Recover the amino acids of this structure.
């Protein structure tokens, strides 16, 4: 074969390739051997007709296109050896000679020209870390709720109690779908039910039945009930109160290794500050990488964006699968379809695709390499995390995939370690 010409126009290359008859013969014969069992020729058992007979009946070029398909991966790899092709090629012209030699023209997206802007010494806003007394108090309350006890009491229901109720809703005297429940635990004051419902349960006692009159909000999701006045027939089965312990030194001893409440508060404050600092640092680093990408000049090919979009959709589909959902089911539940979801992911995919090409350009500019020591440490770390033997991890994760990951992280480190934090 011979690469006759390569013409680049922006992010696309047009390539003309000449394939000699000898190479085409390999592909054509492979196509014939695959297809002959399905071809019937008078005078021959099915699948036994000679190739020449088939070509005589259907035309001498009958196997050319399928033959070209057989050898195209080899042709394409050789043709794009001098260009960084991405995406899928598109055949635009095919000329076939009398001897089955071919001249084909195809286009393919190519990796873009990337001009790095400033990526070192970037000034990036970083949030100041502080922990308020309210945050500490909120965490103490959460801890107290976790160890709170409950008991069923014989008294009228009050805000803050849990009312176990049976209920059924009626609109214009007719029960409506989704308006019935039995043995439902309703925390009074939680706002779980529509406005006005919980307030009318207050004061009821176990065994009491009552009509609760409410009106659905105008923006209620079920259009047939939006703004509708309805009646719920409610029966209160039992009232449960939650006994929350006092937050004092005894509480601190019970829920922690500390002897005093003040020590526990200090520990909560320190841990919250550490978590907030990690979050602020992660946001700072993300912003630095994003700014470096914004400073990069590149015309992004659609193929790179679509590839990143595919990756993000695949990761999200996997997360859904772990939660017991399919992509189609989740999309319907959200009121759309998979294409709608894909479009929702597109802005983030466009941003990440540009980050990817920026990191690749920095790796090249800085001469970043993943050393053997880096690789060994990474395999060891993964093996330890998943409690596997290192050799099994090596068999599961291709070396080139690990190299890309390590080099990307080094490029990110190049950006973030030189970045300068400024107050927001």
């Amino acid at each position: 074969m011979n690469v006759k010409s390569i013409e680049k126009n922006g992010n696309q290359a047009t390539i003309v390739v000449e394939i000699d008859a000898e190479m085409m013969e390999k592909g054509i014969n492979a196509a014939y051997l695959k297809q002959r069992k399905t071809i019937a020729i008078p005078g021959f058992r099915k699948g036994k007709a000679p190739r020449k007979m088939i070509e005589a009946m259907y035309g001498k070029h009958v196997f050319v296109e399928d033959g070209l398909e057989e050898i195209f991966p080899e042709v394409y790899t050789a043709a794009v050896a001098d260009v960084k092709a991405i995406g899928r090629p598109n055949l635009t012209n095919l000329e076939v000679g009398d001897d089955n030699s071919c001249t084909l023209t195809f286009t393919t997206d190519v990796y873009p020209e990337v001009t790095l802007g400033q990526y070192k010494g970037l000034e990036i806003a970083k949030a100041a870390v502080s922990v308020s007394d309210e945050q500490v108090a909120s965490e103490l309350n959460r801890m107290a709720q976790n160890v709170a006890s409950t008991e069923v009491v014989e008294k009228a229901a009050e805000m803050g109690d849990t009312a176990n109720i049976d209920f059924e809703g009626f609109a214009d005297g007719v029960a409506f779908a989704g308006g019935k429940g039995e043995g439902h635990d309703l925390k009074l004051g939680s706002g779980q039910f529509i406005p006005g419902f919980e307030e009318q349960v207050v004061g009821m006692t176990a065994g009491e039945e009552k009509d609760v009159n409410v009106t659905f909000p105008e923006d209620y999701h079920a259009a047939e009930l939006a703004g509708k006045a309805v009646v719920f027939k409610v029966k209160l089965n039992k009232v449960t109160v939650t006994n929350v312990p006092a937050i004092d030194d005894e509480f601190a001893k019970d829920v922690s290794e500390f002897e005093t409440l003040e020590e526990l508060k200090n520990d909560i404050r320190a841990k919250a500050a550490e978590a907030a600092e990690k979050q602020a640092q992660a946001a700072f680093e993300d912003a630095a990488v994003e700014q470096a990408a914004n400073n990069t000049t590149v015309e992004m090919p659609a193929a790179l964006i679509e590839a990143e979009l595919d990756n993000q959709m695949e990761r999200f589909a996997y997360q859904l699968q772990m939660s017991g959902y399919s992509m189609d089911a989740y999309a319907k539940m959200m009121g759309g379809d998979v294409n709608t979801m894909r479009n929702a992911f597109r802005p983030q995919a466009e941003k990440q695709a540009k980050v990817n090409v920026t990191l690749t350009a920095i790796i090249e500019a800085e001469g970043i390499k993943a050393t053997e020591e880096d690789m060994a440490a990474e395999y060891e770390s993964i093996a330890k995390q998943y409690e596997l033997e290192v050799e099994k991890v090596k068999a599961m994760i291709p070396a080139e995939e690990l190299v890309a990951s390590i080099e990307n992280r080094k490029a990110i480190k190049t950006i973030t370690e030189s970045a300068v934090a400024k107050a927001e």
